[in-house]
Amino acid sequence: MRFVDEYRDPAAVAALASQIQREATRRWTLMEVCGGQTHAILAHGLDAMLEESVELLHGPGCPVCVTPVEILDRALVLAALPDVTLCSFGDMLRVPGSRGDLFGARARGGDVRVVYSPLDAVRLASANPSRRIVFLAVGFETTVPAVAAAVCFARAQRLSNFFLLVAHVRVPPALEVILSAPDNRVAAFLAAGHVCTIMGTGEYQPLAARHGVPMVVTGFEPLDVLEGVLFAVRQLERGEARVQIQYTRAVRPEGNPPARALVEEVFEPADRAWRGIGVVPDGGLALRDAYRAFDATRAFPGLAAISAEEPAACRAGDVLRGVLRPPECAEFGRGCTPDRPLGAPMVSSEGACAAYFRYRPAELLESSA
Amino acid sequence: MCLAVPGRVLERRERDGLRFAQVDFGGIRKEICLETAPEARPGDWVLVHVGFALRVLDEAAAREVFLALGVTQGAP
Q1: What's the confidence (pLDDT) of residue B72?
Q2: Which domains can be identified in chain A, with CATH numbers?
Q3: CB within 8 Å of A14: residues ≥ 6 apart
Q4: Whose C-alpha in A338, A364, B4, B30 is 20 to 30 A from the C-alpha of A306?
Q5: Which residues of B touch A (CB under 8 A)?
Q6: Chain A closest CA to B71's CA: distance in Å?
Q7: Which whole number is the average pLDDT over A214-231?
Q8: Structurally, how many domains does chain B consist of?
Q9: Alpha-carbon distance A306 to A273, whole Å?
Q10: How confident is the model at residue A364 (pLDDT cuts 50, 70, 90)?
Q11: ipTM
């Protein structure tokens, strides 16, 4: 067992796909929450396999994609300061702000670095006491324990030159926004597997019950996605709306208690703007007061006052809510490509627009015909 | 962003007061922090994200889908 290849077995994939087709008495509309699932669906053609029984809408589960322009603009201001080293995960560096991206800031002489782990950013701070190290902290609940551990590590070392520009987001409040929208078409969710590895399923029970929507916590390989769809279709056919775990090898109902304890120690829920969706109540995280010394918006006066408009031509918000398929956007493949992106969903390795551009070149041709 | 990769724990060690392990990813070895999965032992498969183990994978649960389908993939 290697936990990856087995879940791509073509015979097993075909068997599950026909099982779904046998059990669905009508065409159901499902949303996969996570961008990793979106990429698996398009890369392996799962949407085409299920065409007659299931419509898959792509959800907001790409933290890079939902990071608003104003946070990037703040990062760009910091990257231009001579004593600041700005670091983040690789995907963030190509996302356009109001005036260019972080790679551009590096080309202009800024010290901008890609790190693999938030601990690497703390080590940079420890090794460079004369510089201020700012980590642009993006990510869903999956990533937050690592960042919380890094903050605790920095505090244990009494570092005073390590800061976070916090852009963390929480999934359940965004699902609430999607389900509450008057134009909502989602009948069931494939919830994000790794988010629930950390958080468990407790936050999803009330959502499923209140909106009458099945929530199936699903993994990322083709067999995982298809089994998640099968579980969701079975619930819909029976009129059920439960939280169910497909991704049992990685998710327990209680989540990961030591990881949750780290998050709870360092962060608290806070209202947060999501790109294209607007302010989501409790949709993000902020450092608790005990850790505010690490908050870049306090350490760098004026940072919090920077605000920005989302680019008008980019319809990322509609894509992230599952209202618009990327090839239906007027700019898709024309004014907006992975090389010259208008918005983050075309940049990120998990963005829905990037997935269509990479895996569905035929749709690009059709949309320009 | 939430991408996580399975790897096998080789040996545990402490560094800077934190728990780490050498983890093997099909031949590539990296030092991974175990503060988020302190129960991981050598031989366990862990799911790794941004340098941290998200949890130990449940090998019995991993086989359920294959048993349900009646196929042999994933057998030990």
Answers
A1: 62
A2: 5-64+171-245 (3.40.50.11750), 68-168+256-305 (3.40.50.11740), 328-368 (no CATH)
A3: none
A4: A338
A5: 1-4, 6, 16-18, 26, 33, 35-38, 45, 47, 49-52, 54-55, 57-59, 61-66, 69, 71, 73-74, 76
A6: 7
A7: 97
A8: 1
A9: 14
A10: low
A11: 0.93
